[in-house]
Structure formats: structure tokens, C-alpha cells
Amino acid sequence: MQCYSLIYENKEKLFEFISKNKLTNFENILIQVFTGINEYDYIEKLQHTLLEVLPNAKIIGATTSGEILQDQIYDGSTVISISTFLHTKILTTIEYFENSSFELGFNMMQSIQKKALHEKEALKVVISFTDGLNTNAEEYLKGLASVNNEVTVAGGMAGDNSLFIQTYVFNERHISSKGAVSAALFNSKLCVHTDYNFSWQTLGKSHTVQKSDKNRVYLIDNKTAVEFYAYYLGEDIANMLPAVGIEFPIVIQKDGLNIARAVTQKYPDGSLGFAGNVKQGSKIKFGYGNIQLILNQGLLKAERLAQKPIESIFVYSCMARKFLLKEEISNEIKPLQAIAPTSGFFTYGEFFYAHKNTRLLNQSMTILALSENPHKVSKTTKEEQKPFKGQEHLDFHRIQALSHLIGKTSNELEELNATLEKRVHEEVQKSLEKDAILFANARHAQMGEILDMIVHQWRQPLNVFSAGVSSLQVYNTMGLLTDDVFEKTTQQILNNVEFLNDTIKDFRNFFKNSQLKEHIHIDAVVEKSLVLLEPLIKKFGITFIKEITFEKELYICARELIQVLLNIFKNSMDAIEENGIKSSQIHLRIFEENKECVIEISDNAGGIPPELLSSIFEKRFTTKGESHGTGIGLDMSKTLIEKRFQGTLTARNNEHGATFAIRIPLNLNL
Q1: Measured between alpha carbons, how far is 243 from 40 in angstroms, rounded to an integer?
Q2: What's the pTM value of the predicted model, to 2 decimals?
Q3: Contact 599, 548 (CB under 8 A)
């Protein structure tokens, strides 16, 4: 295998180059064309020129965002890389995007597999280029793998010099702005080595992708994707998307790798299209390029590569690396050129194959090294691979120091944020546990109060039982027991038994620890509350006035609303008792206002001291002292109304006392 590369200037110089290197003598020729001239007519003319001089050659090509030849970087030029093989057969295929990127990949590999049936040698490598704007390259690679994941895949997405308008891929006969092209290499003994260099670091805290569909991202941290970029990188950067998107990637942890995703499209709804899929729920960070790390890792990759049998190297590198490294970018390529002839282009996304898995990368440099000779190992020394004269420049050290500072600061902030989040979580849990205990204790206290009410409720019926039984015994002893007396007395006893049964049923339902919702009229909730309070209302001689004009059903947990009503009613009764109010009243109004069910409970117990009015809903606030401070409390009542009913509980003073208002929205499916 031999590899020859040149910058295409004109037909005459190309013919001269081919003649000089006697390339017409070879039967198996693969030509890779990397062109920064993004013109359909130019590409078509170039196809005809190449086939005119090398009619048997197989061609694949792509438009670029920069071209690589030897250790030099070019813009707006055309690099032609010609590989000659002795034992490797080449077939090219082009497929057009129709329904989906996955289907595009599936059809591509199916087409290659069909052609493989006629070849004696096994399929070893597929070099593939897709358009850079229309195809979801990650889905395309999945389509390839669904047919055959045993074959090495290399290549990348076409570019258009960062214009993001239109890209092209082509073979020897056809050109496509929406599709993919591939060169399949058949030779079971072909030595193939792939590698990549990412070496970008993450910056800042983790963010969550809340809504995405494959490679289109809609929401990140409750912001549209464009708003997210504007918030962290500024409005200017957001306005320039997608042109600068590839320089500011997001980084996702995937299969143990940091994989970048670069913006390639901006949509009117504020969503962004990325070069590869961004799964909903993914944790992402912004990435930035650490120049020192990139160059040092590049040198290490080259040292490892030099130990392999290699006759040619093809580089498919992200255009963001060129923008980041600027004049230093050639220093990443030089160690490779020192090993074997090197050519390639700067892409909108790179394909990397390892362990039967082809991944779409961004911000990386991917390497495909080939050799037909398993014994041809580079003799390059480590000294020859050290190209970093730039390390002597002050600017290099400034950038190196800044990258190091950003990396360290980001890590420290992330660690601090994680520590703070953990502490906040722990404190919140402690608070919740305390609140749960307080609520449970208050619930038990309220149960105690209700048991006292039960005693009052049952005292009268039990007296009726006792008196009825005694009267029956007296009438019977005196011989005066008639059927009429017996029926009237037993009916009175049975009526009170029924009353006790109803009361027991109400108490049992109240004590159930259930949060089940039900459709119920509000007056039924009030009646269930008043049954429990009837003895106290009679004891204090309270006039209870009901004014209910609300007739709709609510879908609520009735037991929880009863708890709140009991608490407010009991507070009013306690105030009436403490202040010795004569002619005491509690006025209940229930009506609809502003699409809310409003429950107002007013009393004439003198009101709440103005200096305490703003504090009555605070946790653990009481004016009753420890011996009387029972029940669920106003703070817990407020919590129940806000959290379970999505409503409000407020208090104010009226002319003669206090008024509590509960508002429950009607437009919510509570």
C-alpha cells in the first residue's frame, strides 16, 4: 500500500503528479477528496477530471471546514489523497436520505453487504462521509451497526466552512447534499488501527436536559436551549448560533467516555439541533479545550501509533479544534505525519469505532491507520515526534495557565455545589422528619380532644338507655307495662342506638389514616365536623349560624378538610371560653368567588392581638401554653390547605372577633 496526496490546482498539474508517481499502473485505487470549495459544479468537474486520468479509481469525498495535508492545514482548498493497494478491493456506494437517518445507515450497509457477496475477501473497513446538516449521524451509525457491527467504520460529517448552509458528499459518479457515501475495503489481512483524541474538559455545574427528541433539544434547566446558551454564554453567542455552536459544545458522559455534542441548527421555537443525539434526562456540562492537554495527548497517541504497522494515516478532526488551537493545530498533526503520509479534513462530527461500537464524536480528532504490510513499523523516534515549539511562546503558557485555572476552579465549584446540595438535602430531611413527628403528635392530640367529645356525645344517649331500661323494669314490676309503653320506650332506645352507630361511623372515618379523595358536597363536610363539636357548642351556649350558598361538589380528601375546620372552630371556642363571651356566635359562610370555594369562619371572641396576627401561622406558635396547645395547629392547617388543596388559609380581625378564610380553587382536579 502507498499513499500519495496533493493540493489540487488544475488538471495539468494533477496529470503530471499522477504520471510522475506512475499511479496508472495500479488496479486498486481509492481516492479521497477533501474540498473547501463548496460548489456543485466544481465537484462535478473534479469527478470527471479524476476519472479521465484514473478511470478505474474509486472515489469518495466531502466538503470541509478545513483540509489536512502532511502536517499543514488549509482552508478553501482541495486535498486529493490517492491510496494504492495490492491486495485490497474497493467498492463505493452512495445512498440518499429519504425517511430517516437510521434507514439511511441501514440501506447503506445492506448495499455494501450485497456487494460483499461477490468478493472473495472479507469486508474489513468502511470509510463513510455523511452530509453535515440534514443527517442525524448518530442514527445513521446505528443503522449501519444494525446490519453489521463487526466492521470498522471511520469518517465524519461534511462541513461548509462554518456557514451551516449546505454540504456535499460524493463518489465517482454522484453528488448528494442529503445522504451518505462510503468506501468499503475488502481484505481480511489489512492492518487497521483506530484511535481518537478528545482532551476537552468540562466547565461549570451539571445541567439537566428536560426535553429532547433525538438530536433536537428543547429544554435545559427550565430554559429553551437557545435561552440556556444565552444565559451562560451571552446573547451575542446565542444570536450567532449555529455558526459558533461547534466551539461551545455540551459534554455528556456516555459509555464511560466524555462525548461532546455541537450545535448545528437553530429553530424558531428556541430549540437547537445537535450533531448527535442528546437523550432526555442527560446530565450535561459545557466543554472547553485545554490546549496543553490536547497537544500532550496527541503526542502520546502518536507514540502508541508508531508501534503499529502503518503505511497511511487518515485524520477526520472536528473543526472546533482548528478554531481553538489556531496556529498550534498543525502541532497535533505533525507527530502523525512523522509516522506515515497523513491527510484528512475538519468535520462537523467524527466517527470512531472500538469494541464493536461506532460512536459519533464532536470536538475530537479521529485517526484511521492502514497497512497491507504487517511488518512495516515506523522507525520514528520520540524526538522527531516533538513538534511543540509553541511551548516556548509566552502566549502558549498564558493559555495553558488559564486552562488549568478554569479546570481547577470548575472542579472545586462542582465539589462545593455537591457538598452544599448534600447538606441542604440532609437539613431538609431533618426538617421534614421533625415536621412529620410534630404532625403525628398533633394528630394524636387532636384525637384526644375528639375522644373527649365522644364522651360528651355518648353521655346523653347512655342516660336515655339507663332511664329507659329502668322505666321498663318499674312498669313491669307494677304490672303497668303495656304494649304502647314498651314500644315507645324501646323505640327511644333504638333511636339513640342509631345515633351512637352514626357517631361511631363518623369517628372511625376520621381516625382512618387515609388520603383518599372523594366527590363530596361541602355542607356534608361541615355536618361531619359539627357532629363532633355539638357537645361543646351546647356547653358554651354558642349560636352557630350557617350561610351556605355553594352547592357544587369538591373532589377532595374530606378527612383533611374536617381536620382544618375542627382546628379553626376549636380555636374560636377556646377564645370564647377564655374571654368569657356571653351571647357567643360562630358564623360560617360558604360561597363561590373568583372560581374558588370560599369558607369563612367568624366569631365574636374579641379578635387576635394585632401584634400577633402576622405570626399565628408560624411553626410552633401558640398563645395557649403547653397545657392547652393541642390539635394540628394553624401552621399545619395552612400547610394542608396549601399543599393538599392548592389553596390558601388567611386570618384577619373583624368588628367583634376574628375571621379565618379558606380558599380552594375550582379549576384544579384536586
Answers
A1: 22
A2: 0.59
A3: no
| Highest averaged pLDDT of the listed ranges 9-13, 281-285, 443-447, 491-495 | 9-13
Residue 268 Cα distances to 218, 240, 241, 271, 272, angstroms:
11, 14, 12, 7, 9
Give yes or no for residue 58 having a pLDDT over 90: yes
SS3 state at 547: strand
Sheet holding 169-171, edge to edge: 2-7, 78-85, 28-35, 58-63, 169-171, 175-176
The CATH class that applies to domain 200-289 reads mainly beta
Question: Is the pLDDT confidence value at 414 over 50?
Answer: yes
How far is it, in rounded angstroms, from Cα 614 to Cα 41? 79
Using 50, 70 and 90 to split pLDDT, how confident is the model at 650? very high
Paired with 79 in beta bridges are: 7, 34
Contact status, residue 534 vs residue 586, Cβ threshold 8 Å: no
The DSSP line for 140-190 is: HHHHHHHH-SSSEEEEEE---TT--S---EEESS-EESSEEEEEEEE-TT-
Domain ranges of the chain: 2-198+292-392, 200-289, 514-665
Residues 599 and 51: their CA atoms lie apart, in Å, by: 88
> Minimum mean pLDDT among 204-208, 323-327, 438-442: which range?
438-442
Cα separation, 187 vs 152, in Å, equals 12
* One-letter identity of residue 116: A
3-state class of 589 per DSSP? strand
- Residue-level length of the chain: 670
pLDDT per residue over 106-161, tens digit each? 999 999 998 888 777 899 999 999 999 999 999 999 999 999 999 999 999 999 99
For residue 349, which of 173, 164, 220 has the smallest C-alpha distance?
164
Residue 234 vs residue 312, higher pLDDT: 312
Half-sphere exposure at residue 427, Cβ-oriented, CA atoms within 13 angstroms: 6
What does the buried/exposed string (b/e) look like for 373-389 if buried means 16 or more CB atoms within 10 Å of the residue's CB?
eeeeebebeeeebebbe
| CA separation for the pair 287, 201 (Å, rounded) | 6
Confidence band for 436, pLDDT divided at 50, 70 and 90: low
Report which of 87, 311, 82 is spatially closest to residue 186, judged by C-alpha positions.
87
At a CB cut-off of 8 Å and minimum separation 6, what does 37 contact?
43, 63, 76, 77, 78
The 8-class DSSP code of residue 122 comes to P
Q: Are strands 58-63 and 28-35 parallel, antiparallel or unpaired?
A: parallel
Work out the pLDDT band at 206, boundaries 50, 70, 90: confident
CA dihedral 656, 660, 661, 662 (to 10 degrees): -160
- Residue ranges with strand state E in 257-349: 257-261, 263-266, 272-274, 283-289, 312-318, 342-347
Render pLDDT for 359-392 as a digit per residue (tens, 0 to 9).
998 889 999 999 999 886 665 544 444 444 444 4
The CATH homologous superfamily of the domain defined by 514-665? Histidine kinase-like ATPase, C-terminal domain (3.30.565.10)
Enumerate residues 6+ apart whose C-beta is below 8 A from 418.
Answer: none
Amino acid type, 518: E
C-alpha 142/C-alpha 101 separation (Å) is 9
